[in-house]
Recover the amino acids of this structure.
């Protein structure tokens, strides 16, 4: 995997974590507390600046109430109304 492909995956992860968290109506701080990680690490994940371990990804997916794979799925673009 080259750097460009790696960045695409991190960007997708960032978007999905941010959207799922927002849909639950919880803050980065609340997600971090529930997942047992630092709030600044959640921020870095949501800005594509962190490369979280599998263990952390599992904790985040659990607290977001979704299967791990959902953190990496492309979703349909939102249509402008």
């Amino acid at each position: 995997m080259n750097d460009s492909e790696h960045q695409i995956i991190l960007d997708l992860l960032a978007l999905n974590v941010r959207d799922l968290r927002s849909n639950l109506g919880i803050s980065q701080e609340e997600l971090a507390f529930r997942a047992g990680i630092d709030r600044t690490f959640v921020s870095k994940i949501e800005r594509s600046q962190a490369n979280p371990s599998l263990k952390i990804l599992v904790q985040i997916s659990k607290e977001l109430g979704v299967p791990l794979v959902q953190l990496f799925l492309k979703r349909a673009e939102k249509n402008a109304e």
